[in-house]
Amino acid sequence: xxxxxxxxxxxxxxxxxxxxxxxxxxxxxxxxxxxxxxxxxxxxxxxxxxxxxxxxxxxxxxxxxxxxxxxxxxxxxxxxxxxxxxxxxxxxxxxxxxxxxxxxxxxxxxxxxxxxxxxxxxxxxxxxxxxxxxxxxxxxxxxxxxxxxxxxxxxxxxxxxxxxxxxxxxxxxxxxxxxxxxxxxxxxxxxxxxxxxxxxxxxxxxxxxxxxxxxxxxxxxxxxxxxxxxxxxxxxxxxxxxxxxxxxxxxxxxxxxxxxxxxxxxxxxxxxxxxxxxxxxxxxxxxxxxxxxxxxxxxxxxxxxxxxxxxxxxxxxxxxxxxxxxxxxxxxxxxxxxxxxxxxxxxxxxxxxxxxxxxxxxxxxxxxxxxxxxxxxxxxxxxxxxxxxxxxxxxxxxxxxxxxxxxxxxxxxxxxxxxxxxxxxxxxxxxxxxxxxxxxxxxxxxxxxxxxxxxxxxxxxxxxxxxxxxxxxxxxxxxxxxxxxxxxxxxxxxxxxxxxxxxxxxxxxxxxxxxxxxxxxxxxxxxxxxxxxxxxxxxxxxxxxxxxxxxxxxx
Length: 555
Fold this sequence. Notes:
Layout: H1 4-9, E1 18-22, H2 38-43, H3 45-51, E2 55-58, H4 86-98, E3 102-107, H5 117-125, E4 137-139, E5 161-163, E6 168-171, H6 186-201, E7 206-209, H7 226-229, H8 247-258, E8 266-269, H9 278-281, H10 294-297, H11 302-319, E9 324-326, H12 335-338, H13 347-352, H14 362-378, E10 382-386, H15 407-411, H16 450-453, H17 455-459, H18 465-479, E11 486-487, E12 494-498, E13 504-508, E14 514-515, E15 520-524, E16 532-533, E17 537-542
Parallel strand pairs: 1-2, 1-10, 2-3, 3-7, 7-8, 9-10
Antiparallel strand pairs: 4-6, 5-6, 11-12, 12-13, 13-17, 14-16, 15-17
Helix pairs in contact: 6-8, 14-18
């Protein structure tokens, strides 16, 4: 078994941690304004403690106009007054630490908001000024700069360039309210080191780095067109706008800051890069860990799961880090819904249909979501959970157009619905104006089905998804071993592996029951069929001699 105390003492607690993502605006609202806040999070720490998570990751809580759900940051060293104060942040860190839960905060280094002090200075200073050099400004095409410098498109739709009225245009690879920073500027680099120390000094244990692969850009002339940016065959590290090798110079500087603290602060990169490029972001002299989204993007396919798991364990060994496993977050359709749909479903089209074409099989989706979560918790490495998945929440696909907040909806002119469906506020109670989210309403409408999925409704039900997650995290802590596994040859529809110490995880991806392997079942994601493992189900088993130390949780 793993000596977890030793991992903590060496600052390696994150290697096999369970981290719970909180989207603050939608977690819990203490003051009744419909927006989640820091006191609301503090009021629900018992839920997190009882769940058994090792850390929470707080999505942005900084001052923001919410052009992109808080990822348009006005001030990196303050709290949005609608969410709380710095004093309340400090109190939350204390409460979480007292509960044995570490704190990770989101850092958004690719862009600020257009309300950031620096950007206001840039607009006032004019073309060619040092203030504009903190961002990426270029003269427009045409006699008076009236045309954008290139035909690049932004991630949320429309042009990636925005005019400022004097012939200059600024680059925004996301929304126009999110101007990209110039990371070739030393002042930008130094200011972010100050920000990292600001939060680390307040007790923050680590950082999640938003779009970590996009900071460094090659904007030397001539600038390519969008077709060149999208072309195949660009060598690794040579794309003009992302995943350039030079970005790792920045993270070596960040690592030096992290190592100023005892224990060293940790970080995890959100880097949407080819799988083989991920280890550099997770290296010991860089951020230390990187998100693995491969299972999140995989269909319900046992061969794909086996291949992805082994590939990422190999990559983790290469980087010296541990792998990460994640199925849901604030940017994707919840996995209880994805697995309710046929393989190959176009999720964008499905969202535009209001979640009706095709109709999801929600019972199947929940079975499969529980099964893959239990599988992931058995793997070496860290598991990242998204708020509400422990309640079995599904995607709210039928939000009315007037309620949508994601900039994708407007920027795409209604051709993409966006990410609001996974950001609907959590239900805590079976009744009330927002099912216990707060004393008033909620900033996104909650469906009636949330009542029966609320934490209160599931609290006393031993078979509920909430009870299942609590048991899974508790058993995982007792079973944790060194970061390796051995595959067990089995039927092609089964994913079966053994961990050091002899305990096994087996998942049935097929359509018929399969025999359980020898041993005693300590936990299953759904009811068992005697000695058989039903479809869409995972079970953990220990050797009979070891089973005496575990309760039989399937009786």
